[in-house]
């Protein structure tokens, strides 16, 4: 273009370009990084959660850069001096301003939001450069003069290249300048590039005179004029501003706008710095007063913060650790694996500790190791990836856990030992029960035959001189039977085959009968047995309760040398208390629990059979437990003892008086089958039954009994079988075989001297009546009579 440039305005345009670039770089820098110290005040926002102030700063940076570029462009155009009057289209001029701001903002926002991407900067720089070129040539198109503009293609291409390079450099500098001098140098280079682009574009324009008047466009209402300095106004012409004045006004306005933006940025940064300082102080107070070690590291593992708790835990001062790799606080193999773990996490995102936490080991300055819980959090400051590690020394917890484990192991060992001891005691108890059962069986077999022979002889030796000897022998046999019956009671209770039949009944008749029965024995022993009548009712098993009372009364008679025995019932609120009180020898306080054990007799060291066997109270304890009745003992040595049994009360009801009918033996005698593998018992029972008038089939096995019945062609009236037979067979099986031959069930009795609980339970399940040897002749006769 012909003409020249005003050097002062050219200089003004360059100053505005440099100042606008510096303001834009400064705002862009602080929008991306802020002023917080990343090692002290970690930013807990991720990449997707940015500070709203960053967007405002980027917008301000775009406005500053766009305004600076456009102002430089417009002032540069006004700096051109030509004899041809030039005016500017207001619409295109405004469009050029908007293009400058828009393309600057688009470039800055694109790079700020996509910094990690490789091609973001070249693409954004190219688009921004093309936008600036568009802004420049749109502004040139807004010029109104009596000349046609033409452009040199080469210079236009050079201006485009300069614009793209300048835009790319500007965007690159926007987020990489850290210090003010760097930003100032970048602004100088950016201003130089923009000015170069502008004046290269101006140089590319050429002017040609308009050949036809009709092609000249008149001034429109939207154009404003910039007249040469020598132009004069007349009454027929409009008022116009000189180019210098217009350029100065544009420059001053732009500088004022940029200064305000810079001042606003400085005030904003000052407030942000104060907030950051407050946050830093608050964070430092929290970190330094935390009881757990807190360590901050960067993505290379370098320690940037080390709080007081960490100093106490690891034994290092903060200045000994900060700046060094955090693996110095780890023993092997954690030390060697740490950097590899960080690198693998950065490459693959595989989490092993970050965001999860785990138990690791720490290494103190003195070389000792200790267990700790480690929790690691990840956060970002700009493009920097940071990690916060929060640790807790769990040495005490581990010691407590080990103590708990040891205690648990010891408790388990004690439990196993207790179970073993219990099993041993149970085995010993079962062995004792089996021993008693075997001994009872072996003793009852010959005792049973003695009973039957003695009874058979008593019928034949009536009024014979030897009958008193036979009576004495019978008394001895009865004493032996009582002893074996006591052993049997213990075995049956241990077997659990005794099932109580609970019913409501009156206590008065039971106590009256027992008092009357034992009053004669007490008198024979020089004692007085007193009985307190009662009308109370209770809920219990009458037979088992009678057995308890008998044992208690017999014990009182045995161990009382003189004085009284009292039997009665006391009312205690909603319960009854049966009492058997004597004035005997008494029981020491530390031995009241022992008297309920088997074969314990405190006052019978010589084992006098007349004082019992030591099983009576053992049976009382078992029966009371079976009936759920509590037994209480009160005793004073030398003054006597009291045994109390707590019973529930029941509502009395009228009971008809029983009528006793005399039992008469039937005239007809039946056929009795006797099966026993003991020949002596078999012969004695046969002799006794035949003496009573029965027909007897005596056999040592079921097969022999069946053969005899088939020969006779008769059905038996009753079967009496021993439990243990030859070849491992039982009386229950023998009865079943005989039933098969008879075709009908006849009354059957199983005799046994075995007190084994399993044997007792088996016979109970068969449904046959079980009688324990030795059975007395009157009892057997009663059984036969009832069966008939």
What features would you highlight for this structure?
788 residues; alpha+beta; five-stranded antiparallel sheet; rod-shaped
In the sheet with the most strands, the strands line up as 9-8-12-11-10
The tally of beta strands, per DSSP, is 24
- Count the helices. How many? 20
Q: Measured on Cα atoms, how large is the radius of gyration?
A: 61 Å
Secondary-structure-derived class: alpha+beta
Largest sheet: 5 strands, antiparallel
Helix percentage = 40-55%
**What distance separates the N and C termini?**
155 Å
How much of the polypeptide forms β-strand, as a percent range? 15-25%
Characterise the protein shown here:
The chain is of the alpha+beta class and 788 residues long. The longest helix has 66 residues, at 395-460. The termini are far apart. The strands form seven sheets. It has a five-stranded antiparallel sheet, with helices on both faces. It has a five-stranded mixed sheet with strand order 14-16-17-19-18. Strand 11 (369-381) and strand 12 (384-393) form a beta hairpin. It contains 20 helices and 24 strands. The radius of gyration is 61 Å and the shape is rod-shaped.
């Amino acid at each position: 273009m012909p003409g020249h440039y005003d050097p002062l305005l050219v200089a003004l345009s360059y100053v505005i370009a440099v100042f606008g670039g510096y303001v834009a770089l400064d705002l862009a820098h602080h929008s991306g990084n802020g002023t917080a110290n990343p090692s002290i005040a970690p930013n807990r926002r991720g990449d997707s959660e940015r500070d709203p102030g960053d967007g405002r700063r980027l917008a301000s940076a775009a406005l500053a850069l766009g305004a600076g570029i456009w102002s430089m462009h417009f002032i540069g155009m006004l700096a051109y001096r030509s004899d041809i009057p030039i005016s500017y289209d207001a619409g295109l001029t405004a469009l050029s301003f908007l293009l400058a701001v828009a393309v600057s903002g688009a470039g800055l926002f694109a790079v700020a939001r996509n910094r990690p991407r490789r091609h973001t900067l070249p693409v954004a720089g190219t688009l921004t450069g093309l936008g600036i070129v568009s802004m420049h040539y749109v502004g040139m198109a807004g010029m109104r003069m009596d000349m046609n503009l033409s452009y040199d293609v080469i210079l236009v291409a050079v201006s485009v290249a300069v614009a793209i390079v300048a835009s790319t450099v500007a965007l690159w500098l926007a987020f990489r300048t850290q210090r003010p001098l760097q930003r100032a140098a970048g602004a100088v280079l950016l201003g130089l590039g923009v000015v170069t682009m502008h004046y290269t574009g101006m140089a590319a324009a050429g002017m040609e005179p308009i050949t036809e008047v009709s092609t000249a466009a008149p001034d429109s209402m939207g154009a404003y004029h910039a007249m040469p300095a020598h132009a004069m106004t007349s009454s027929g012409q409009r008022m116009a501003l000189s180019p210098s004045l217009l350029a100065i006004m544009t420059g001053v306005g732009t500088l004022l706008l940029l200064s305000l933006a810079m001042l606003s940025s400085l005030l904003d940064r000052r407030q942000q710095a104060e907030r950051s300082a407050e946050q830093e102080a608050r964070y430092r107070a929290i970190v330094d007063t935390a009881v757990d070690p807190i360590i901050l590291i960067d993505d290379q593992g370098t320690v940037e913060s080390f709080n007081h708790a960490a100093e106490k835990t690891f034994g290092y001062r903060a200045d000994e650790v900060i700046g060094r790799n955090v693996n110095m606080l780890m023993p092997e193999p954690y030390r060697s694996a740490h950097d590899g773990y960080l690198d693998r996490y950065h490459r693959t995102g595989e989490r092993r500790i970050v965001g999860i936490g785990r138990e690791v080991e720490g290494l103190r300055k003195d070389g000792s190791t200790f267990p700790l819980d480690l929790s690691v959090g990840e956060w970002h400051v700009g493009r920097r990836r940071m990690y916060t590690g929060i640790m807790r020394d769990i040495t005490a917890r581990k010691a407590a856990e080990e103590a708990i484990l040891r205690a648990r192991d010891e408790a388990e060992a004690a439990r196993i030992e207790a179970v073993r001891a219990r099993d041993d005691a149970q085995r010993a108890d079962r062995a004792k029960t089996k021993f008693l059962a075997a001994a009872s069986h072996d003793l009852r077999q010959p005792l049973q035959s003695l009973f039957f022979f003695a009874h058979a002889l008593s019928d034949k030796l009536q009024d014979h001189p030897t009958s008193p000897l036979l009576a004495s022998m019978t008394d001895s046999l009865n004493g032996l039977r009582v002893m074996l019956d006591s052993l049997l009671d213990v075995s049956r209770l241990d077997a659990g085959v005794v099932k109580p039949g609970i019913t409501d009944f009156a206590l008065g008749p039971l106590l009256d009968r027992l008092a009357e029965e034992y009053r004669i024995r007490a008198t024979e022993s020089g004692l007085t047995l007193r009985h307190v009548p009662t009308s109370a009712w209770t809920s219990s098993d009458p037979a088992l309760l009678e057995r308890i009372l008998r044992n208690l009364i017999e014990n009182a008679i045995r161990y009382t040398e003189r004085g009284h025995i009292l039997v009665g019932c006391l009312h205690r609120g909603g319960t009854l208390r049966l009492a058997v009180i004597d004035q005997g020898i008494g029981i020491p306080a530390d031995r009241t629990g022992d008297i309920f054990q088997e074969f314990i007799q405190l006052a019978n060291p010589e084992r006098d059979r007349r004082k019992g066997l030591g099983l009576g109270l053992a049976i009382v304890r078992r029966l009371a437990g079976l009936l759920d009745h509590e037994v209480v003992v009160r005793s004073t040595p030398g003054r006597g003892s009291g045994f109390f049994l707590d019973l529930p009360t029941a509502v009395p009801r009228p009971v008809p008086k029983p009528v006793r009918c005399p039992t008469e033996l039937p005239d007809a005698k039946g056929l009795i089958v006797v099966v026993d593998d003991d020949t002596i018992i078999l012969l004695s029972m046969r002799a006794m039954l035949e003496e009573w008038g029965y027909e007897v089939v005596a056999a040592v096995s079921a097969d022999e009994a069946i053969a005899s019945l088939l020969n006779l062609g008769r059905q038996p009236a009753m079967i009496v079988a021993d439990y243990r037979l030859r070849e491992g067979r039982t009386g229950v099986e023998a009865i079943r075989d005989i039933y098969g031959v008879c075709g009908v069930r006849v009354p059957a009795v199983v005799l046994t001297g075995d007190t084994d609980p399993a044997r007792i339970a088996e016979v109970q399940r068969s449904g046959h009546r079980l009688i324990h040897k030795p059975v007395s002749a009157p009892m057997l006769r009663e059984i036969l009579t009832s069966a008939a």
